[in-house]
Amino acid sequence: MTIYLHKGDLPDDVKFEGSVAVDSETMGLNPHRDNLCVVQLSAGDGDAHLVQLDRKNYDAPNLKRLLQDEQILKIFHFARFDVAVFSAYLGVNTTPVYCTKIASKLCRTYTDKHGLKDVCRELGGIDLSKQQQSSDWGAENLTDAQKNYAAADVLYLHLIKEKLDAMLAREGRLDLASACFSFLPYRAQLDLDGWPEQDIFAHS
User: Fold this and answer.
1) What element of type H or E holds 66?
2) Three-state SS for 152?
3) What are the b/e assignments for 88-125, b being 16+ CB within 10 Å?
4) What is the pLDDT of residue 131?
5) Would you kindly state where each structural domain of the chain is located, as residue ranges?
6) pLDDT, tens digit, for every residue of 105-115?
7) What's the CA gap between 113 and 155, in Å, rounded?
8) What span, in angstroms and rounded, lies between the C-alpha atoms of 41 and 151?
9) Do 155 and 48 form a contact (C-beta atoms < 8 A)?
10) In angstroms, rounded to a whole number, what is the distance separating the alpha carbons of residues 133 and 153?
11) 3-193 belongs to CATH 3.40.50.300
12) Which of 110, 70, 116 is nearest to 93 (CA)?
């Protein structure tokens, strides 16, 4: 595994084709308050690219272009949050997307454990450490522990997607999952516009 740290933007010579695993690190879980700090990416080849953003201007044209590229599938775990944060800070509509957390909830109905750590353990035999989850991602210099944590969040998403797709197909829920993924940008916009908790589809 190689971890590449890029300051400000994704370099011109880093290209992705077909699909890319994506995650983000922020200063907290409120998109209106907590700045986007790091975006991590992987082609599923065992390497990870970490983009440490300039929070003064978020001028990252290469990264923004990738997130909006209709020809490249973006694979997330809990895409709802990342897509909302990218809209708020980068001003992009991230599409198309695949969310392993939604896929897990649709096919792993025998459990209520759908966190990345649990899914990776069961489907990939991978034990992820979440120790750095609440660390200071706004620091000027990231620690090796932070880099390793951030990389781990994207390194296995291609493998997990493959496993989940097989389960979704077995249970006849691939089309339902696809419809959920297509709705995600709208769900993220609802979060940003003031409906983060309310179920607007509910009767009451």
Assistant:
1) helix 61-68
2) helix
3) bbbebebbbbbbbbbbbebbbeeeeebebbebbeebee
4) 66
5) 3-193
6) 999 999 999 99
7) 20
8) 8
9) yes
10) 10
11) no
12) 70
Q: Which contacts qualify for 37-41: CB closer than 8 Å, 24 or more apart?
A: 37/137, 37/138, 38/137, 38/142, 38/150, 39/63, 39/86, 40/150, 40/151, 40/153, 40/154, 41/10, 41/16, 41/66, 41/154
Three-class DSSP category at 132:
coil
Nearest to 98 by CA among 40, 161, 186: 161
Sign, CA torsion 39/43/45/49:
negative
Helix locations, 156-195, DSSP H: 157-170, 174-193
Each residue of 22-47: pLDDT tens digit?
A: 999 999 999 999 999 999 999 999 99
DSSP, collapsed to helix, strand or coil, labels residue 181 as helix
Question: With 70 as the cut, is the pLDDT of residue 132 above it?
Answer: no
